[in-house]
């Protein structure tokens, strides 16, 4: 839920101001992960540091967005902004509160004591923090915040105070600390006792390391060191095969630690993805990886990978908000999802990540599709076409509920896990549950190198590009298309389904252009929003292939406008929701020409008979529906199973305009974060 960023410059002179700018810019890239408070930890100024407080660490923390922290940094008169630091390690963090209200004292970095001997930044939740806190209080350690994170710096201080000798290395201390922690975490540590050293570790929360050097690196593959982390006197050995170093000791190099590649991409494209229980250590400019023990089948090497995204892909461009930009990117993002996978000349679909497992998938007795929020809605949207083309029972599950029920899973099940970030905690835990029960696991994510990517047996990368806005838009439509393509690939050898398949393939071919036509309705949708933005509630109704659109549209409205909104299955109207309808209740109905058309007309009659004034999303060639509508949003025709892609876009635009008119921050809705990496 939080954003971690840290920067280490080794023998690369940087002024304190340049270090501040790097840290703040990194946080701004990660602000979508959390934005109720922020803080940094840097070395104290030489001009103000007394000999008795050598290597002092300065903490600057502020409630509010990163901009508030940025302004606070330059109010510190004691900090010499022009002081040049040849080697320096700085931490930065943007928070989304889970334990304790948003405040400066609850924000990160957290410290071990008033002298800031150890400081740490954390993304995740420590589930046994209460027990640890009670123990440390008994031992005389004082706590100042309400957070779970504060036990970590206090615990490492306790371990340091009780070390067996002065030769215990920094990573050894961290190793001992994480053995006591339960829950999910990505951690980066800094200490005045180990100046210029960085230690990072993760379990269940994402963390990657960017590497930048003007000179060629000796190796791009770092063997993991097992058993026990080396003691201080042996840690600085010149074994170039165990650590990255440009040209031997003293060569300039920079390291960037981040929760997400978007914070690193403007500095370097060379990154290493940390695995669960890795301990990454930078000492003397060298990066090494350590683990307590080696498990069967795990990769003993951490290799540098090259990021494919570009900086401009994560910038707003000419749009007012990332969400708006991402809505208008959908013609391109949907095309990129299909590119190289559908051959429109032969009407064939090949998903490279699944082809080696296709025979096994075809033998399955059941498909289970698991996700949270928008990803769950993508599963609901495609369940009908999956059942139709695979002729296999399809269960659609919310990750949290799936785990709560201890759902029976069998070896001949195939389980899909949908997550934009690939780090969604509940979905990741459901994945591990299904793996334990022997099911084949398939990931559908938008983030290469994410935990779900690495832990599933196979998968599909949706190629939607970076999605920064907290409210998901283009990832939803790309997830939708990915699942439709999977159903097409599964049915390729079914003669009885070829006509249907051809209809869908032709629909996918036209989809990017049809999306552009829907986006051209933006001004009309803005005018509708202008009439509705002062309302307190909104109902969205539909059925069949468009029921998921109702759920997703209502979620978008809730997320960023803070209006109450409910997606209603039109077939359930008589079973309760009809009581809500009157002339003052805003109603949006999705009535497209498909198998449910007549049933949706019946629902429309019920709404208008109660003086409802429905805004109807309908087909362009449907004057009959327009007669009973207060207003219409007319969409181009497409095959029924793809209608949900076109019909959700007006609701995405409507939610955006409603939020702007109500004066809210579209990209950073209150109480929410982009990547939900805690339960």
Which term fits the overall shape?
globular
What Rg is obtained from the alpha carbons, in whole angstroms?
A: 27 Å
Tell me roughly what share of residues is in helical segments. 25-40%
Structural class: alpha/beta
Number of helical regions = 20
Mean pLDDT, to the nearest integer, reads 90
Distance between the termini: 10 Å
In which order are the strands of the major sheet placed? 4-3-6-1-13-11-14-18
Count the beta strands. 30
Main sheet record: 8 strands, antiparallel
Low-confidence stretches: 47-52, 228-241
Strand content: 15-25%
Secondary structure topology:
Elements (H helix, E strand, L loop, with lengths): L2 E8 L3 E2 H15 L6 E7 L13 E7 L2 H8 L10 E2 L2 E8 L14 E2 L6 E9 L2 H10 L12 H11 L8 H9 L4 E9 L6 E6 L4 E5 L8 E3 L8 H4 L17 E6 L11 E4 L5 E5 L2 E5 L10 E3 L1 E2 L15 H7 L1 H9 L3 E2 L4 E2 L8 H5 L3 E6 L1 H18 L3 E5 H6 L8 E7 L5 H12 L3 E6 L5 H5 L2 E4 L12 H17 L7 H22 L2 H11 L4 E6 L4 H15 L2 E6 L17 E5 L5 H13 L4 E6 L3 H4 L4 E5 L7 H19 L18
Parallel strand pairs: 21-22, 21-23, 23-24, 24-25, 26-27, 26-28, 28-29, 29-30
Antiparallel strand pairs: 1-6, 1-13, 2-5, 3-4, 3-6, 7-8, 8-9, 9-10, 10-15, 11-13, 11-14, 12-17, 14-18, 15-16, 19-20
């Amino acid at each position: 839920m939080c954003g971690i960023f840290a920067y280490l410059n080794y023998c690369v002179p940087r002024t304190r101001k340049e270090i501040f700018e790097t840290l703040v810019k990194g946080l701004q890239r990660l602000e979508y992960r959390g934005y109720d408070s922020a803080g940094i930890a840097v070395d104290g100024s030489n001009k103000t540091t007394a000999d008795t407080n050598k290597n002092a660490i300065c903490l600057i923390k502020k409630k509010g967005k990163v901009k508030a922290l940025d302004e606070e940094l330059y109010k510190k008169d004691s900090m010499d902004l022009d002081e040049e630091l040849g080697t320096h390690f700085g931490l930065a963090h943007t928070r989304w509160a889970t334990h304790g209200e948003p405040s400066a004292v609850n924000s990160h970095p957290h410290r071990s004591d008033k002298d800031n001997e150890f400081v740490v930044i954390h993304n995740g939740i420590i589930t046994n923090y209460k027990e640890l806190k009670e123990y440390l209080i008994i031992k005389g350690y004082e706590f100042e915040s309400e957070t779970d994170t504060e036990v970590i710096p206090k615990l490492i201080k306790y371990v340091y105070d009780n070390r067996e000798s002065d030769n215990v290395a920094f990573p050894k201390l961290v190793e001992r600390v994480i053995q006591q922690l339960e829950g999910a975490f990505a951690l980066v540590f800094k200490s005045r006792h180990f100046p210029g050293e960085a230690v990072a570790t993760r379990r269940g929360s994402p963390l990657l390391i960017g590497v930048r050097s003007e000179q060629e690196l000796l190796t791009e593959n770092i063997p993991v060191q097992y058993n026990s982390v080396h003691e201080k006197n042996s840690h600085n050995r010149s074994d170039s095969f165990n650590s990255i170093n440009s040209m031997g000791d003293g060569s300039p190099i920079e390291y960037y630690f981040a929760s997400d590649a978007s914070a690193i991409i403007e500095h370097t494209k060379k990154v290493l993805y940390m695995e669960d229980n890795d301990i990454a250590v930078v000492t003397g400019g060298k990066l090494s990886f350590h683990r307590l023990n080696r498990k069967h089948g795990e990769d003993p090497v951490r290799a540098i990978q090259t990021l494919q995204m570009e900086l401009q892909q994560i910038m707003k461009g000419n749009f007012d908000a990332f969400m708006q930009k991402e809505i208008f990117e959908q013609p391109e993002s949907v095309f990129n999802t299909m590119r190289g996978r559908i051959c429109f000349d032969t009407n064939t679909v090949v998903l490279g990540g699944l082809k080696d497992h296709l025979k096994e998938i075809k033998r399955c007795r059941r498909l289970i599709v698991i996700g949270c929020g928008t990803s769950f809605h993508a599963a609901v949207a495609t369940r009908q076409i999956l059942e139709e083309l695979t002729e296999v029972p399809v269960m659609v599950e919310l990750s949290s509920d799936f785990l709560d029920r201890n759902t029976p899973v069998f070896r001949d099940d195939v389980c899909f896990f949908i997550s934009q970030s690939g780090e969604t905690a509940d979905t990741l835990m459901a994945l591990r549950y299904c793996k334990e029960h022997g099911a084949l696991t398939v990931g559908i994510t938008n983030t290469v190198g994410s935990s779900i990517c690495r832990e599933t047996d196979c998968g599909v990368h949706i190629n939607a590009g970076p999605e920064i806005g907290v409210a998901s838009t283009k990832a939803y439509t790309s997830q939708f298309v990915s699942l439709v393509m999977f159903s097409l690939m599964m049915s390729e050898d079914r003669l009885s389904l070829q006509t249907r398949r051809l209809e869908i393939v032709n629909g996918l071919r036209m989809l990017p252009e049809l999306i552009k036509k829907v986006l051209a309705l933006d001004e009309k949708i803005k005018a509708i929003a202008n009439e509705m933005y002062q309302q307190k509630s909104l109902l969205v109704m539909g059925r069949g292939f468009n029921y998921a659109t109702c759920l997703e549209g209502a979620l978008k409205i809730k997320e960023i406008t803070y209006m109450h909104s409910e997606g209603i299955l039109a077939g359930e109207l008589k079973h309760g929701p009809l009581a809500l309808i009157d002339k003052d209740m805003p109603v949006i109905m999705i009535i497209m020409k498909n198998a449910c058309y007549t049933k949706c007309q019946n629902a429309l009659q019920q709404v208008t008979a109660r003086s409802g004034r429905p805004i109807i999303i309908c087909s362009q060639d449907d004057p009959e529906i327009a007669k009973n509508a207060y207003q219409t949003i007319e969409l181009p025709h497409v095959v029924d199973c793809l209608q949900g892609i076109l019909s959700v876009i007006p609701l995405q635009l409507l939610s955006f305009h409603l939020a702007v008119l109500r004066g809210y921050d579209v990209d950073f809705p209150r109480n929410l974060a982009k990547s939900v990496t805690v339960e």
